[in-house]
Each structure stands twice: as structure tokens, then as C-alpha cells.
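Support request, please re-run this one:
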Amino acid sequence: MNILLVSGSLRAKSNNTLLMHLVSKMEFPDLEFIISNPVSDLPFFNQDLDSEENVPDSVRVWRKRIEVSGGIIFFTPEYAHSIPGSLKNAIEWLVSSFEIIEKPCMVISSAPNHLGAERANSMLQNLLVVISAKIYKNLSVCIGSINKKITEDGFLQNSETEDIIKQSLLSFIKELNKIKQ
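Re-run finished. Output below.
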């Protein structure tokens, strides 16, 4: 089974993108992590373009990756107490299509402050519920003080944080396996 990893940040050295790459290197039996194209590849949502004959190629690729994945893990920072506009835009391209309906999703957020982008995490979960994704709220992870826990090379310096991420991923995989049966 493959799990699509999506970073909501546009920054090249984003802590959330570093976390995504860290997760992508973790090994679990019968599981492959696929890193999504950057959300910056998608044009601004425009309902006039949201038809079979007009939809941009980057949106077709985005929707196909969502469709063929067994689940999705979103990594999000928090800007102005919300998710980044680029991530909201990517989700808006899924509203009128069916790829994300009942798709298992979890959210990992991080921020330099002690809250770990919990408002953005909660907002993204609520947004995913609105578009009928299957969200596992109890598995979400909010990592505070991330700048003290991860190196510029994407290595966690904090074993407790790594354990929390791994346990949440194991629980998500367990839920995915229930669905597969």
C-alpha cells in the first residue's frame, strides 16, 4: 500500500517539509511513502477551469495521486492561525472531484512555538471532514518548538518526538489495514 505525503509549506527548508522527508525514510512492512508534487505546482483554484476539458495537467496529476493512494499524511505549518493558502488551494481542487471521499488522512503539524501549529492542524482536519475525507483526529500530531528538535538536514534530535510520530504512524497503518480487509 502507498501513502501520499503532502507538505503544505512552500519554503525549501521548511521544518514541515523536512519532517515529511524524515517520515518518507521510515520503513514499515508492505508500505511505501510517496512524496507528492509541491502544492505550489497547482494554479489558483478557478471553477471555470474545473471541468474535464479545462482542468490543468498539474491538477490531473494531483487528483490521480490522491486517487491511487491508500491514505494521505498532510504536513502543515501555521500562518496567521490558519493553514497556508497554498495548501487550502490544493484542497479546493479536490472539492468537486471524488478522489478524497472516504480517503484515510492524518495531519502532522509543527511550529517553532510551543503549540506546534495546533490551530492549523485542527483547521485542516475540519476542512478535510467537510470534503468527506476520513480523518483520524486522535492520530494527529502537533510538534512544538520544532526548530529545537530538527536539524537543517532533517534529523530529529529528540527521540521522544520521533517516538510520538512513529506511534501515530503505526496507529494510522493499523487503521488502513482494517479498511483493506
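The domain at 2-180 is CATH 3.40.50.360 (Rossmann fold). The helical segments are 15-24, 57-68, 85-92, 118-130, 159-180.
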